[in-house]
Amino acid sequence: MAKILLLHGPNLNLLGRREPAIYGHDTLSDIDARATAQVAAAGHELLCRQSNAEHQLIDWVQAAPGEGVAMIVINPGGYTHTSVALRDALAAVALPFIEVHLSNVAAREPFRRHSYFSDLALGTISGLGALGYELALTAALRRLGDPA
């Protein structure tokens, strides 16, 4: 059994009521529940965490190897475009990760088109709403050797 860490960055705690035309109507609890069920069905464990605080996300990334995490799926939220520190933490732990965005960041404001994470990530899923998490976890599970 492998552990996958699902990290949600700032403002994602407001999903379901925050700009639903952009981010959809699913709440973070909805997304986490479906993700947990998907990973459990494959015989693995999912750790779901959200924070608006950059240092907390960094602490969780740094603790991941000691917790036995094999893969990270991360939606860095606004930190995508600003956080060299979170990027450095992901590089330091050297765990494979997949970057997820609910909206199509390439079709939004110019500042959202740059990610500090994409060049380190196994892959990036953007613009497919909450389905992006399911697709990222499918890829993570296959990477871990499960056909699910």
TrEMBL record:
It holds the Pfam family DHquinase_II. GO terms for biological process: amino acid biosynthetic process; aromatic amino acid family biosynthetic process; chorismate biosynthetic process; quinate catabolic process. It catalyses: 3-dehydroquinate = 3-dehydroshikimate + H2O. Pathway: Metabolic intermediate biosynthesis; chorismate biosynthesis; chorismate from D-erythrose 4-phosphate and phosphoenolpyruvate: step 3/7. Keywords: Amino-acid biosynthesis, Aromatic amino acid biosynthesis, Lyase. InterPro entries: DHquinase_II, DHquinase_II_CS, DHquinase_II_sf. Substrate binds at residues 75, 81, 88, 102-103, 112. This is 3-dehydroquinate dehydratase. Homododecamer. Belongs to the type-II 3-dehydroquinase family. It comes from the Bacteria. The record marks 18 as: Transition state stabilizer. The keyword Amino-acid biosynthesis applies. GO terms for molecular function: 3-dehydroquinate dehydratase activity. Catalyzes a trans-dehydration via an enolate intermediate. The active site is at 23 (proton acceptor), 101 (proton donor). Its EC number is 4.2.1.10. CDD domains: DHQase_II (cd00466).
